[in-house]
Amino acid sequence: MKHVGDRLVQAFASKSDVLARAVKAARMHQSIDIAETASPARPFVTAALWHELGAQIIVWCASQEAADRFATDCAYYLEERGAPVWTLAAREVAPGAPQNPTSQSARIETLAALAARRPGVFCVAHDAMRDPVLAAAEFIARTRTYNIGGTYDWEPMLAELVALGYERVDTVGAAGEFAVRGGIVDVFPAQSDLPLRLEFFGDTLETIRTFALADQRSVGAVESVTVTPWSDAAEAGGGSVLDYAPRSVLVIDGAEEILAFDRASGEQASGDTLLEADEATEDGAELERAEPGARHVIEMTDLIARSESHAVVSFQAGVPGPRIAREADVTIVVAAEPAPAYGRS
Q1: Is the dihedral of CA 21, 309, 315, 71 positive or negative?
Q2: What is the pLDDT averaged over residues 206-218?
């Protein structure tokens, strides 16, 4: 029996003329406005779009909370399809500072899925959208795959792991680390659920096995392991998340909220709240921008320019407000209001 979320999406996709118009426009890389769709219904419409397109959709959300909520709702509607939904949170610390292994692993997994052109819905908070990242081509070029039977120069391989951002330790205890004992290399790649043990005879890779962190015992054998960069921070310039999927559909979940967060993010760390930042803007006051050395970010004008190559879907709840995307080529109406009891469409 099909999951109820998938049945709803299929029913809407098969009977909705307006969705068919949106899908056609997206395939032509046009700008689409979807009007009168309340916020709780947007993940459903996005899931239906993905159901028909089967491509990559990047959802640009104002906050991490909004991105997580959007992703959770989308995953519900796409459960029968394996819930191909990812989120990308903002980088937690400045480049070079200690990282939370779980958060960083999730970031790299999302970037790797985007770079590999994996179909799915990618929910990105505005702060994450502003983070400069390794250029997509560089991320792909630096990714390494090790296969059983392959020959690898020992010292260059270890130096390569360090260059990718992995920390050499005595015993692997978290993602982003590797250890060396004799002809054995233990490594915990960003995309792996378990660390892996690579056993060499000379320069030849003989076995690869996953192992448990708790007791370091082997769990199972695999034929190959892919090691992506552990650090996604760009040393100079860098790229944008949008560059990782240049042919994706960009969904803008609330331009007004995104612009408000962008204004607030640009102020100095003075303790002002988002509300105070908004009030200052409404009063005509100019917010002070952070000092250049504080945190390098991609400016909104640059993000808008990068969005030009994408098909864009802009949700408009009611009266048209401020825009991020170019003017609409197509406007459709998907009327949906929150149900009073539950706040869902």
Answers
A1: positive
A2: 92
